[in-house]
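dumping these here so i dont lose them again. two proteins, back to back, each one seq then structure tokens. dont judge the mess
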Amino acid sequence: MNTRYVTYAVALLAVLILVSNVFFIVPQTSQAIVVQFGRIVRVISGPGLYARVPFIQSVSYFDRRILGFDAQPAEFITHDPAAGIDERVVIDAFVRYRITDPVKFYQAFKTEGNADSRMGSIVLSAMRRVLGGRSLSDLLSAGREPIMERIKGEVNDVAKGEKSTAQNSPAFGIEVVDVRIMRADLPADISQSTYERMRKNFTKEAQLFRAEGDEQATETRASADREKIEILSEARKQSETIRGEGDGEAAQIYAAAFGKDPDFYRFYRSMQAYRRTLSKDDTTMVLTPDSGFLKEMNQ
């Protein structure tokens, strides 16, 4: 009985192994090729369940989606036409591509890891050709976009077999979707000296701006002070004129009013004299009872 169960188990295991080697699944996001003795015998582009010859044919899967990798940071030489000097720049870039022909891709790279390594070298070569006549300011401004488009175009030409140093270069079966620069910095050995030079230039420019600002501020302040003096002088002149006219008119009114009643005028002048003399608390006066100053009080 136990021997029969063992036989059944072994048979079932053999069937499972056979089925797993015969049938395989291609996911929705993948495409596959069937290889027999190193030769491609079948290309599968759609998802589903498929069969193969067990132990003879192997299956390689390739992603249908957009793939990407980061190129190794590398040092490039850029040219600044304004200063007439060459600059060393360290650039990081990333690449996005899709597999358009799995047969050509397999023949060129075998695996996606090999493709990333090979394409990284191609991208760096294209960047060296394109960036040779560009300046660092082009990479840090709106001029970066056409530079990236040109690099992508050159990489696509190589991937399609249209441009290569070797003759009859095969196509890679891929399409480069995008090439982008993530970082563009000066090398560490010259970044500090460049920073010091820029700091001195900006400090000199700031001092020039500050001197010009101080000069303009002094001129503005002097003009404002002069205008202030002129305005105050004119206002004082007008106030004195108005005050003089008012005093003259008041004197005429007082003279006309007091001429009608001399006794009231005399009484009013006495009241004004009392107010001016006795308005302070520390005032001390020594007068005789018959003093003319106290005439109104006595009455």
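---- next one ----
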Amino acid sequence: MDLEVKEVSELLNVPIETLLEWIDQGKIPAYSIQNHFRFNREEIEEWLLENPQAARKAEKHSYNLLRALNKGDVICDIHEEIKEAVISAACQKIASKLNIDPEALTEIIMEREQLTPTALT
């Protein structure tokens, strides 16, 4: 699924001008179709995993975990009881669907958990 500049700007919670600067500087993966920039969702997810400082900055301003990982899902077959184990198991399932590194995703989610804990107890 391709994303437009406005969508990625909102997703990362950065001004459009900043996003356009990043594109010009080659800091973020993008391509142009008929003079309009587009982004591949999977490439943006991978870029976020490789650039945790951008994820942390966005997260501080209502990042919403890559807008609920941009696919949304309900995971109901996790039988762990300790919060960290629940998060790790969920990240394993999410990462396999998104074809991303589960350990990196777990690390990002756990860092986010330290900033603002979820309701998991």
